[in-house]
Amino acid sequence: MFEPISGLPEGVIGFEAVGKVEATDYEDVLMPAIGRGAAAGDVRLILVLGDRFTGYSSGAMKEDAGLVSHAKAWKRTAVVSDLGWVAHLSTAFGWMVPGKFKHFGLADRDAAIAWVAQPE
User: Fold this and answer.
1) Are residues 101 and 77 in contact, defined by beta-carbon separation less than 8 angstroms?
2) What dihedral do alpha carbons 16, 20, 23, 26 form, nearest 10°?
3) What is the rounded CA–CA span in Å between residue 39 and residue 44?
4) E-state strands within 5-117
5) Is the pLDDT of residue 66 over 60?
6) How many whole angstroms separate alpha carbon 87 and alpha carbon 113?
7) Once rounded to an integer, what is the mean pLDDT over residues 18-34?
């Protein structure tokens, strides 16, 4: 599931993945939040995959590819994780994410939030 991250700067959407992320988590939580951000003018997203994250279902992985909706509204996305496969995929496919994209380690979570909040 996706737990909202509180205390973020205005205009920043943030979630921490907890347990196993399912397709319904994208449909019911993440995509509506991105839609609201796009309607407000831009999407600035931070996604944390930390110690409480156990993986994605196959349906969720397919939904992950659909995150590029509202492509023109995407400004910055930060993925925060110490998982090696997340870092690898971020390097390999980060260029496909609309706007600016960056991977951060868990120790740099505050820096990731600050980076996502930066004006263009």
Assistant:
1) yes
2) -10
3) 12
4) 12-21, 43-56, 74-81, 100-104
5) no
6) 17
7) 89
Range picked from 20-29, 78-87, 102-111 for highest mean pLDDT: 102-111
CA 17 – CA 25 distance, rounded (Å):
10
Six-digit token string for 43: 């999407």
Tokens of 22: 């399912």
Residue 63 one-letter amino acid: E
Cα 58 to Cα 76: distance, rounded to the nearest angstrom = 26
Distances (CA, A) of 51 to 16, 34, 45, 82, 90: 10, 24, 19, 9, 18
Q: What tokens were used for 61?
A: 């992985």
Alpha carbon 117 to its chain centroid, in Å, reads 13
Q: Check: CB of residue 34 under 8 Å from CB of residue 75.
A: no
